[in-house]
Amino acid sequence: MNMIRFACAAMAGIGCALVGARLARGLTLREETLDAWLRALDALAAAVSYVDDPLPDVLERVGSNETRADARLADMFNEAAARMRLERALPFAKTLPSGWAYGLDQSDAAALSPLIRDLGGSARAQQIARIDSSRAALRRQAEYAADRTARQKRLYRSLGSLGGLALFLCLIG
pTM of the prediction? Predict the structure, then answer.
């Protein structure tokens, strides 16, 4: 009977520790999304700065494999380019799907909103300036997210381990 009790206590303790580890791993979504957006903005800045192509062509280049774009963002940029080709006067903001900010929090989306609203609707110098300001804002957000994520990961792992240990001790005692 004691062996069964010990085994159940051990499984409960390990389960709590695994839940803590799982929660900690789930925190990386925002970091990964910010990193993907930063890579996309780097590619967008390069394409707008050095090539005098129409915006749909630029968006397709950003969504291509050569820019190492995140698959979800690549699909979004490619879809936007296709919609802009069908409706020539359609601004970039109107081509984005409703879930374009998936993985971002409100402050991240707010940092991207001016760029999304104005992309393709102003002179090249203004677009480059808007891209640069959005990149700077997202870099700040990414630094903050990385610091916060690291702290929360430690917290979740610690709480999971301590909760598991406490549960183990309660069940065997």
Answer: 0.75
